[in-house]
Amino acid sequence: MEILDKLINVALIAATLRTTAPILLVALGGSFTTKAGIFNIGLEGQMLVGAFFAVIGSIWTGSAFAGVACGVAAALAFALAFAVLVVTFRANEVVVGLALNILAGGMTISLMKAIFGTRGSIVGHGIVGLPKVQIPGAQALLGSWAPLISGFTPIVYVAFIAVPLLVLFYNRTRLGLYIRVVGEKPEAAEALGISITRVRYIASLLCGLLAGLAGAHLSLGYITMFTENMSSGRGFMAVAILIFSNGDPLKVLAGCLLFGFADAFSLRLQTFGFPSYLVLTVPYVVALTALFALSYRARPKIIKETLASMQKLLSVDRNSAPVDKNPQ
Amino acid sequence: MSNAPGSPPPQNTAAMAVELAAITKRFGAFIANDGIDLAVRRGEIHAIIGENGAGKTTLMNILFGLLQPDEGSIRLNGEPTVVADPAAAIKAGLGMVHQHFKLVPSLSVADNVFLGMEIRRHGLIDHAAQIARTHELSKRFGLHVDPTERVGLLSVGIEQRIEILKVLVRGARTIILDEPTAVLTPQESRELFQTLRSFVAEGMTVIFISHHLEEVMEVSDTVTVLRNGRKVATRPTSELSKDELVRMMVGREVSFDRRPRAQLHGDAVLEVKDLWARDDRRLPAVRGASFTVRAGEVVGIAGVAGNGQTELAEVLSGLRPASHGEAWLKGQDLTTLSPAAIRETGLAHVPGDRMVRGVDRNASIAANTLMGRQHRGPWSRGGVLDWKAIAGNAGALIKSFDIRAQGSGDAVKRLSGGNIQKVVLAREFTNGADFLLIDQPTRGVDIGAQEAIHDEIMRQRAAGRAILLISVQLDELAALADRILVMFNGRIMGEVAGDDADEDRIGMMMAGVSPELEPAQ
Predict the structure, then answer these.
(1) Which chain B residues touch A181 with a CB distance below 8 Å?
(2) What pTM, to 2 d.p., does this model score?
(3) I need a labelling partner for B351 at 20 to 30 A (CA). Which of A211, A243, A249, B265 fits?
């Protein structure tokens, strides 16, 4: 009981919010492309270049916010390249996405080497991290619960505020509606004179914007450094969440919170002396279990049929066994 | 243009809502519309009837600006008009409800109705106003829908109402419906007709495409019959009988050059007992068909296209599940077997749509003659194909079936329609099956190849095969069949001996009137 109390407390929830923010942002970005009918596996790469160039921008200008702008611009450039190849030239989305991811990984490493002469990570060099926002009156209002709303970097707030804004965007604005129509029923969009190409470009760029913010949050907010491949699969987790949430902002939030919680929880477990390699698998185990549970509901037929056929096989074995034992 | 007070606006004075003059449209060598004139009076329900491929949809697509005519002109409300695109058509007060709906499943009914012309307040979509307006329109014309429901949850019939509402919201005064009842249940069709009448009562004009005689007789004021891209006639519905309509649709010039034959009395090969099947919309398409096909006999299935013949062929070949009944071939019930197992049992299938199910158009003649028996010797040895043997066999088939091609390596797509069909026949007729299911063997085939195909079918008959021949061409059935069964609305209305095939009697049954049975519906 005592251990549970130590494990689960306000700090854990605050940590969950912090770990959720980057994946939430990148997943919300992916929600634009998902809704527009583009399977965007390039989120990981966009996030990674966002993180890298945010650090570079922060060093060059000495301003965290200019750094964020740099990161976003880099991610937008990647998103534009993705859109040109996928929307205009109709290249395969998965191939282009993977290629851009690989490019992002290689490019950041070689640029790091070229600029800083190091491998592995960029620490120091005058990186300016994002300031933490103290909400005035939070302490007075919530007492020990204050860390739940106060003391995060600005992008964390952006991530969570973006959720209701996106709900409004999809339901009440013309652009949001058109993005959904283009993704769900392109022929309907065409018949009504909505330009599919334009809508998909806009969706791709909106995606780049949020993915860039997510990357900048990783390297300037979450921690103040850049390491090789620091997006560490968050973009892919976001893709998984998007597949199962169909890009609905609220479902995206739920999926990301689950992952963020598992991430934060594994960090806590580490401090309690559990073997770190085992502990680091926790987020992925949780995510896989959750996705399986969801997919069980979403595609009951295939799985039920598989189970039924397995049962059939087993029951055949059981029936045949006694026959062998009792030859006539 | 003067708009003097008191004088009615010019568009209300024209008696004709739509006038098409000498419309011609070609697709390559194929003439879809051949000099068609059409005049639709304001305030009438004008049906355009014809078999599949008669050119109805092409004509309406031209009117709605989806296609441009090669020749001819259009007048709307008396004004010469160039309908460059659908937007121009909508502006001119036309609206079209297509066969295939273009609705977004996750959006509400009202959102779908107003998609592309949303009502907005302060930049945000005003759902309440859209719902209210949808509700008002649906009430006024008896198009019952719940504006707030998600389209994905609704039936096809309601989806159609939404498509009609879309057209109304855009201010259409002349509404074109392309085969609207093809997706509807009988009740929904009756409700649709009520709605169409309410349009006319408000002074609107309805153009209604169909190939169903019954509903044309029931709902229209005027009928225009198209056949093979030409207009046959435009007549007031009240002056027409169903029988006359069928004859105009199918064509009067039925030639009965019957093939000579020796009477063979073989054993029953295929026995179909009370077979039922549903179509893609889950509506019954085959309703209790029972018949027998004996060895050395050609049984023909006649009927206006779309009366369950396609579904019957699909059930017999295993491509569509039967919902009830049996079909016995050599001691096996075909309704329980896979397509491959049915072929093994002894079915050869010449499908109605040869480019989809008959051949792989990109593959060579040799490969196409192999398909379905690639695992058998002598074509395959130890799982490896012996292309020499395959090509040799294909070469022999090219000769014996008189396929006009350079060689067995030719891609099928380079052949003419008749020769492609001969490739299918060559494959199907040489695999030793006892039962041949032949669907529209000469559709889109030139006269010379038609003769050759008919010769081949008669040779198969003489060889003692049992043949079920489905065709919408009466002359083909009259020439080849020993017995003709007439299908209407999924039922077999009656049987006519091939020797005394009588166009009038078959025509009556094709229209749903049967001397032996009670009229359907």
Answers:
(1) 104, 107, 115
(2) 0.70
(3) B265
